[in-house]
Amino acid sequence: MPELSRFFGIVVRMFYSDHEPAHFHAIYGEYEALIEVETLSVFRGSLPRRALALVLEWAALHRDELRDDWQRARKGETLKEIEPLD
Fold first, then answer.
1. What is the residue extent of each domain of the chain?
2. CB neighbours (10 Å) of residue 30?
3. Cα–Cα nearest to 2, from 21, 22, 25, 20
4. Residues 70, 4, 38, CA angle at the centre, nearest 5°?
5. Which of 3, 41, 51, 74 has its CA 20 to 30 A from that of 27?
6. 53 Cβ partners below 8 Å, 6+ apart?
7. Side-chain half-sphere of 54: how many Cα atoms within 13 Å?
8. Which of 60, 59, 80 is nearest to 69 (CA)?
């Protein structure tokens, strides 16, 4: 699963052959959440509150890039890394 970004101990990844809706995986220690790109809602898993807030802030800033990477993944193309939150 390609890594899109890494910040504050959080790893953001996206699968090539993952299911709809368009989403990404945010992993923080033993926690993992699947977050929908369009709504930024968690539809599976969980993260600690502070980690989730950071992920949602990052995703809101990079939603277009996440959409583009989802389309690349559907085509089997190389995904582009996305700037981390600083």
1. 3-75
2. 5
3. 25
4. 40
5. 74
6. none
7. 18
8. 80
Backbone angles phi, psi at 60, to 5 degrees: -65, -35
Pairing of strands 31-36, 23-28: antiparallel
* Angle, vertex CA 62, rays to CA 60 and CA 64, nearest 5: 105
Per-residue pLDDT of 25-79, as tens digits, reads 999 999 999 999 999 999 999 999 999 999 999 999 999 999 999 999 999 999 9
Q: Are 35 and 41 in contact (CB under 8 A)?
A: yes
d(C-alpha 57, C-alpha 7), whole Å: 12
The helices-and-strands tally (H runs, E runs) of the chain is: 2, 5
